Amino acid sequence: MLAALGMAIALAFAWPGLRQQALIGTSYAAQSGCTCRFVSGRDMGSCKADLKVADLGRTTGLLMLSEDAQTRTVNASVPLLASQTATFSPDRGCQLEPWPR
Q1: Structure pTM?
Q2: How far is CA 81 from CA 21, 35, 54, 61, 88, in A?
Q3: Residue 85: domain span
Q4: N or C: which end of the chain has fewer CB within 10 A?
Q5: Which pLDDT band, with edges at 50, 70 and 90, does 54 fall under?
């Protein structure tokens, strides 16, 4: 019981930093994935491989990347922490959605 309480307290202190790091990481991953997929025309598998070499902090191993070819969007997420989407437009390139406040 005491160990669980200690873990909960540690998580409460670490949560804001993890969330910020996850938001930055998912933003980078969504932007990079969108550019890789819709500007460079590479397949999503090679775009995901690019993220493995990027140093995105403690959340790197948790990043998930997916695409919606119909809407030309790429979504990056770290479960329970952050999610970010980048949308491709021929005249503007890949743009991120605004960050949540």
Answers
A1: 0.80
A2: 9, 23, 19, 13, 24
A3: 2-96
A4: C
A5: confident
